[in-house]
Amino acid sequence: MTRFVIKRLFSAIPVLFIVITLVFFMMRIIPGDPAAQILGGGVDEVDPAQIEMLRERLGLNEPIGMQYIHFIRDILKGDWGTSLHNNMPVFQNIRARMEPTLMLTLYSTVISVLIGIPFGILSAKHRNTVADYTMTTVAVMGLSIPGFWLGLMMVFFFGVRLRWFPVQGYTYIAEGGLKMALYSLTMPAVASALHHISSLTRYTRSMMLDVLNNDYIRTARAKGLIENKVFYKHALKNALAPVVTNIGFSIAGMLGGSTVTETVFNLNGMGKLAYDSLVRRDYPQEQAIILFVAIIFIFTNILLDIIYKILDPRIEFD
Fold first, then answer.
1. How far apart are CA 217 and CA 207, in angstroms?
2. Least crowded by CB within 10 Å, which of 44, 137, 145, 229?
3. Handedness of CA 281, 283, 288, 291 (dihedral sign)
4. The whole model's pTM is what?
5. What are the distances in angstroms from CA 120 to CA 218, 245, 284, 308, 312?
């Protein structure tokens, strides 16, 4: 297992290199001048001499190849750069915005797992019944509803009309405790989790039905084992292993999709910071956020592989 983890960590290096390279060049393709944005206007609205001086100071006048070399060199030295917007180290800005995004992702994941997996299991157990058709229909509807629209409807009904939850903002754990933090994130977490609940329900159902058709399940039934034991001990254990992989993709989707949720609910997390940095053409900040999310995604997948091994000891890692 240790050898596998070390091997996966080393294999992550080229992945991160590709991510860094793509982000660097894609940010430079986006229209807009960071210097003009910092000076408070477009290229035609600010003195060209001031723009040129600022570009020179920020190193934006260097050839793009030289900028890339400097960028890679700084990353290898542990320097992720300085924000063009507030002149603060980019990782310091990320750290200040990290809590809302990570809490939202964890909260949404817990909701997805606690609802999606049981629904998928029940749907498979009661296949071709009213319960199965109902849960399948609800799952399809959940996949079809846009997350931003659901968020706006929740804000209107549960925030404005019923006043059950705060309309916007996040209460930090240090300020109001874990309970208040989760309370302020309930609507965003539900809105973010809906799509993943539906996906997890359908995937769990599919895996359960696939396992139930295997020969060893028929053998277990032929030996006279009670149906619940066959279903929960033999089938469920083997079906959950690939479901864990789906949960990993859900976590990545929630991290990547936090921008929309955080914008709708006005949460000052990394997603909103990424959006604001993109609007400001803050290259170093945007690059650092994407790199940070990529690192989290890689480590999450390694952790899920370990859980995969625990659930199914027959799996051998090279």
1. 14
2. 44
3. positive
4. 0.77
5. 21, 15, 43, 19, 20
